[in-house]
Write a structure and sequence with these properties.
Elements (H helix, E strand, L loop, with lengths): L11 H8 L9 E2 L9 E6 L7 E5 L6 E2 L10 E3 L2 E2 L23 H5 E5 L2 H8 L10 E3 L9 H5 L2 H10 L4 E5 L8 H7 L5 E6 L5 H7 L6 H13 L4 E8 L7 H14 L3 E6 L6 H12 L4 H8 L7 H17 L30 H4 L13
Parallel strand pairs: 3-7, 5-8, 8-9, 9-10, 10-11, 11-12
Antiparallel strand pairs: 1-2, 2-3, 4-5, 6-7
Helix pairs in contact: 3-5, 9-12
The structure holds iron/sulfur cluster.
Amino acid sequence: MRWDGQTIAADAAAVEAARSPGRAGADAVPAPALLPLAGLQRSVRTPEFAGITFHEVHAKSLLNHVPATSAMPFAWTINPYRGCSHACVYCFARKTHTYLDLDAGPDFDSQLVVKVNAVEVLHAEVRRRSWARPHVALGTNTDPYQRAEGRYRLMPGIIRELAGSGTPFSILTKGTLLARDLPLLTAAATDVPVGVGISLAMVDPALQRRVEPGTPTPAARLDLIRRLGDAGLPCGVMAMPILPWLTDTDEALDTLFGALAAAGASGVTAGALHLRPGAREWWFSWLAAEHPQLVGRYRRLYGNGTYASKDYTTWLAGRLRYFRRRHGLGSSARFFRNEPESAVAAGADGDRRPHDAASASSALSAPEQPVLF
Ligand code: SF4
């Protein structure tokens, strides 16, 4: 277990801290002690975030090194939050919450760990002489612009520290809260290479509400893609996961890719749903409740594994290639690792991609396994 040995009580000190003027969440009230988290300062709830408990921790480090054996296209990641109120049913990161003695279902959506000292810690880390300023990826495990960021405002400081130290970085998010930091990102892009990716794999708002209930609407995310373009920040799109029998029809793919092209997406990477342990159980229980007629088909398609059958992924790769070409969209891989298009290996969507965390996951150590949106 990554976090160990510390508990808190809803004592007078916590009440005082929660109500201190000038701190994020002066309206917060202490929540019952729940977790054995290292560095835990307090656990709080606030009326603005009904049903959510924030566990504020002092992290010892922020920069997370991805093992050299990983196939990921970056060596360093930052995840200021653990757990994610975007609550996507298929989320790969769900399993990581079990390392905190929390469950991979509702707890992942509502028991959020916040590294409240993230900016101070990063400030020290990027000033070390040994820091060689490699690319740093944000949004690889949980979403840095989930709703909690509106309360804690960690990202502006993180962006400043990275850009100020000459460290190139990329951000992948579903959160339209990123628009708040557009001026800062635009300024950062004059100092270092900055990649921005938006995760959007379906444009049907009714389905999005069922599958990704805490996320901004598809229309809001398309608008964000437009705003990024207007701000001069090219925006790649991660159209994952494509959901068999739910979002993989020609009509759905044509509508999605057409909407992305119309919004000005500079490129798109897409692929089928992966069902890793942790996400798999959660997905099947959702499917049984929402689309029981599909349960047998999914079981046959995925068997006991993580990936859809080769026949299916080959078929889907062909459809994705067709619709990407039809709408004049290139690859988005370069936006997530700050490389020119020419450096991105040619490959069909649906094949193994540089940014395909599921393919690389076996080489990554828990709990901060990079995960895609
Ligand atoms: S897939 Fe991404 S946005 Fe969705 S719950 Fe997981 S971390 Fe959050």
